[in-house]
């Protein structure tokens, strides 16, 4: 049997990528990979084991044996503990961004990410899904939005979850992580060749999902 089809969503944080990828996966009946969650879980596990966030070799060695479970509702367990909220704190935002710049860590996460590819198909979202991890993806999207719009969206998400946050701090953190994502030497954040770019600043989630589904139908000859 040929390999399962993959649809990728890449772009900076808070562009709506996660929500859009989840909706599209549900509409197509495909599996979903939130690759940022893998970086986050690994960052949290390293932190809890007192590993320095620049120790790429030790962090990479931790990845293959990590007892992580994903459930269909988006919940994530580490050693049986629900860490869905613990991986979304400002500390883990920062640690995940730092470990994601380490070549050994990115390499260790490759097989783990590719393991999510199963029939009838996979929707994968992150930074380098289309460019590196699933370079042979059927349809690739690159979502963007202005930093201000993204900071406001992240602010609302955190407030809705009952987590405190200040907008200027969020904007500053987001800009500094964007810079790190864009400037790292390995897999820097940039659109994959052939990716369809969508600026979501002025669009609702529904509008983006509509455009995406139309593009998928056109590209897949549907
Ligand atoms: O999408 P996110 O904010 O949950 O991602 C967490 C961190 O992991 C972020 O700093 C970027 C990094 N990341 C990455 O480098 N490559 C990916 N495919 C996904 C996330």
Strand-and-helix sequence, N→C? EHEHHEEEHHEHEHHEH
Strand order within the widest beta sheet: 2-6-1-7-8
Question: If you average the pLDDT, what whole number results?
Answer: 93
Query: What best-fitting shape do the alpha-carbon axes yield?
Result: globular
User: Structural class, from secondary structure content?
Assistant: alpha/beta
Let me know the largest β-sheet. Answer: 5 strands, parallel
User: Uncertain runs with pLDDT below 50, 5 residues or more?
Assistant: none
Number of strands: 8
Bound ligand species: 2'-deoxycytidine-5'-monophosphate
Terminal Cα span = 21 Å
Rg value: 17 Å
Q: Determine the strand fraction and express it as a percent band.
A: 5-15%
Number of helices: 9
Protein model, in words:
With 222 residues, this protein is of the alpha/beta class. The chain is 48% helix and 14% strand. The protein has helices at residues 17-28, 35-48, 56-62, 90-99, 103-114, 129-133, 147-160, 167-183, 205-219, and strands at 6-10, 31-34, 68-70, 76-78, 81-82, 122-126, 139-144, 196-199. A hairpin with a 5-residue loop joins strand 3 (68-70) and strand 4. Helix 7 (147-160) crosses helix 8 (167-183). The chain starts with 5 loop residues before the first strand and ends with a helix. The relative contact order is 0.21. The mean pLDDT is 93. The structure holds 2'-deoxycytidine-5'-monophosphate (DC). 2'-deoxycytidine-5'-monophosphate binds next to helix 2, helix 4 and helix 8. 2'-deoxycytidine-5'-monophosphate is lined by residues 13, 35-36, 39-40, 96-97, 100, 126-128, 177, 181.
């Amino acid at each position: 049997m040929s390999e399962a089809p993959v649809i990728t969503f890449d772009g900076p944080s808070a562009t709506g990528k996660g929500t859009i990828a989840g909706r599209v996966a549900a509409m197509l009946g495909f599996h979903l990979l939130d690759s940022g969650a893998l970086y986050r879980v690994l960052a949290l596990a390293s932190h809890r084991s007192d590993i320095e966030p620049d120790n790429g070799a030790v962090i990479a060695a931790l990845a293959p044996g990590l007892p992580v479970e994903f459930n269909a509702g988006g919940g994530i367990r580490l050693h049986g503990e629900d860490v869905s909220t613990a991986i979304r704190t400002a500390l883990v935002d920062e640690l995940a961004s730092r470990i994601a710049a380490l070549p050994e860590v990115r390499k260790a996460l490759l097989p783990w990410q590719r393991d999510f590819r199963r029939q009838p198909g996979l929707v994968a979202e992150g930074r380098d899904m289309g460019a590196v991890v699933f370079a042979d993806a059927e349809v690739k999207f690159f979502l963007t939005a202005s930093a201000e719009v993204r900071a406001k969206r992240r602010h609302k998400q955190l407030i809705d979850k009952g987590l405190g946050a200040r907008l200027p701090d969020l904007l500053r953190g987001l800009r500094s992580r964007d810079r790190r994502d864009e400037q790292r030497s390995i897999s820097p954040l940039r659109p994959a060749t052939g990716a369809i770019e969508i600026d979501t600043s002025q669009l609702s989630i529904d509008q983006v999902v509509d455009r995406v589904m139309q593009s998928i139908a056109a590209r897949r000859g549907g």
